[in-house]
Amino acid sequence: MPAPAPDDVAARSSVAHRVRAIGVLAVEGPDRTEFLQGQLTQDVRTLGTGEARLAAGLTPKGKLLYWGRVFNAGDHLLLLVPAHARAAVASHLAKYAVFQKVTVRDVTDAHAALGLYGPAAAAAGLASISMGAELPPEGEFAVEVFGPRELLPRWEDALARAGSRPVSDETAEVLRVEAGRPLLGKDADESNLPEEVGLERAISATKGCYVGQEVIARLRTYGRVNRRLVGFHFPDRPAPEGTPFPNPEKPDHALARVTSVVASPRFGAIGLGLAFRDVPQGASVTDPAHPEWTAVVVPLPFA
Questions:
Q1: Rounded Cα gap, residues 263 and 194, in angstroms
Q2: How is residue 184 annotated by DSSP?
Q3: Which residues pair with 22 in a beta bridge?
Q4: What is the CATH code of the structural domain delimited by 227-298?
Q5: Cβ neighbours of residue 39 under 8 Å, at least 6 residues apart?
Q6: What residues contact 185, with CB distance under 8 A and at least 6 apart?
Q7: Would the pTM of this model clear 0.90, i.e. be above it?
Q8: How far apart are the C-alpha atoms of 292 and 19, rounded to whole Å?
Q9: pLDDT digits over 89-131, tens only?
Q10: Residue 222 has pLDDT above 90, yes or no
Q11: Every domain of the chain and the residues it spans
């Protein structure tokens, strides 16, 4: 196993931080709430000022287009989405906004988000949060702060005084995989249902109609998903990202597929991916053409 880097140690034992790469879209106008109520899986009508919730946008067939947080900024709503997806999300929403009193603007450059790791994150982040808004944390993060980009230097100064260490790209990816947080475009795409990749919290069970709602409602009432996001442990050599593990009885069908791979100081070679529902935890899957690429299916988060 690789030796843990100083930022990895800080993220696990004390406090560390990272500026998050997000896209921020402002949804404005008198119809903004009803517009997003019909677009998102989350209940926007009951969202209080200064409150944020996990939400997703779906195709009519209930498949994922994007996910992120919806934030009530008072006189407008903000969508916090993956940075690489912001242009596509803005274009998608603009098509539906044509006949409503609503506009969608990219305001990414005016905002910043900071994720904090570790058992001391809450205490260290108090000074920063007092100058911004606290978001419901995702995956590996203990605390997340969001606000105007002009506040970012103050946040970082406050955290430096509290002994927080910046987290590198490499360490951040290890922490993400260990926590089992999927990335849009890597671990999930338009072929996936929200429940397949652990996004149940993004879906309101009580709100009314939204795009894809009928499919999600039928699934919750009558069925279950065929695939699920899982962890992989590689006891020999890690399989490359994208590796499928075929079904010996149906070689044209994959039992599982690897989507993310990292070298963890705690767990060794591990990854994320999708496995069919009949593949139990603890099962081993192998690529017959590369028997050294054996993966053991484990629950998430890694522990």
A1: 27
A2: B
A3: 82
A4: 2.40.30
A5: 57, 93, 96, 210, 211
A6: 82, 84, 85
A7: yes
A8: 37
A9: 999 999 999 889 999 999 999 999 999 999 999 887 665 566 6
A10: no
A11: 6-174, 227-298
